[in-house]
Amino acid sequence: MSDILYLECPCSSFPRSFARDYKETYLYPPPSTIYGFLLSLVGEEDLTAHLGVKLAIGIVGVPLISRILRKQRHHKFSKTHMGTYPPSQFSKPNFQELLTDIKVVIKIDSTKESASVKLDERVAIALATPEQITRFGGLSLGESWALINGIRNYRPEDGEIQWLVKDNRGLIGLPIWIDRQTTQGTFQRFSLSVNQFDENCWTEIQVPIKTKATKFQS
């Protein structure tokens, strides 16, 4: 059995961290998004439950980019509003980029995890016996409306894999971890490698260490 997972998502968006009014999208699913997707798959709500897991991400084919106009909400939690944000004051139309026909492959290495039941084991259980999993909502990649068609093991006939390879001089910058309160986080640069899998394809999911003297990497 292949240890590579394969999923298809008809339409999604991975908004760039610096995007504001015009919601540009990353062209490839970021490690932070894939990690959140796997937690959703196994029904885990604690984002720190599987820190230390290594993920390798690849794509099959090239997703198409389109642009739409949609209403979006803009706000940050504040004590003044206490979670109440009327749409009339905090919503406005903005352009957003979408990706269509997304085909993603994922490899999971849980050898460095400290969890008693590793993430790769929980994913295997979720796929083999989904009735044992307690989760809620549709399974999506990215925003909640971006439901996937399904997830299964990769087959060679699915197509050629282009792996994201860590490359400090690469042109693909993707977030590894994002602090949703500060919108800051850690990033890694990648390049694409066709059917060439090596150790540089692995990205470890870790929370950045906060200190008074240093800030998050960006």
Automatic annotation (TrEMBL):
Where are the bilayer-spanning segments? Answer: 47-69
Indicate whether Oxidoreductase appears among the record's keywords.
no
Q: Which InterPro entries match?
A: Cas5_Cmx5_DevS (IPR013415), CRISPR-assoc_prot_Cas5_N (IPR013422)
Q: Which UniProt keywords apply?
A: Antiviral defense, Membrane, Transmembrane, Transmembrane helix
Give the superkingdom in one word.
Answer: Bacteria
Task: Enumerate the Gene Ontology biological process terms.
Answer: defense response to virus
This chain belongs to which protein, by name? Type I-MYXAN CRISPR-associated protein Cas5/Cmx5/DevS
